[in-house]
Amino acid sequence: MTTATYTGTGRPGALAAVLTEVLAVTGRRLHHLRRAPGRVIGVALSPLVSMVMLGYLFRDAIRLPAGGEYSEYVFAGGAVQVALACVGPTAISVAMDFKGGLVDRFRSLPISRSAVLFGHTLADLLVGLLGLAVVTGAGLLLGWRTRTGILPTLAGFGLVALFVYVMLWVGVLLAVTLRNVETISVVTPFIVVVLPFLSNAFLAPQSMPAPIRPIAEWNPVSSVIAACRELWGNPATTGGSFPAEHPVAVAAVTLGVLFAVCSVVSLRRYRTAGS
Question: pTM score, two decimals?
Answer without folding.
Answer: 0.87
